[in-house]
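Quick one: structure for this chain?
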Amino acid sequence: MDLRFLRTKRRGLSPDLDLFWTYLLCVNAASFLLMGLDKLGAKVNTERVPELWLFLISLVFAAIFYRVLSEMAPFGIDLDDVNKSSLATAVYTTGFIVFLGVIVYGSLLLPV
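Got it. Here's what it folds into:
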């Protein structure tokens, strides 16, 4: 099996994106494991994963995500300097509005 592609440097991606994708991989793996534990508990009729655990774990991953975002410099602009560039302000505001729209749209689709 040829594994040379693992050693080659990817073109076009910054180390910031590598950090971001690593974070996403960790969050998804942890979420998948928690979901599996909860489903196993439901199947065996034992104690399920408490909601407090889910809340605390999401809080920890939110803090890690904040730290990851503070280390990133998308488009070559540090997040502390967003207000100094009109392009960065537009991208940041648009991203926030899209993110807020996705959250509202997702919450409206949840069955009650």
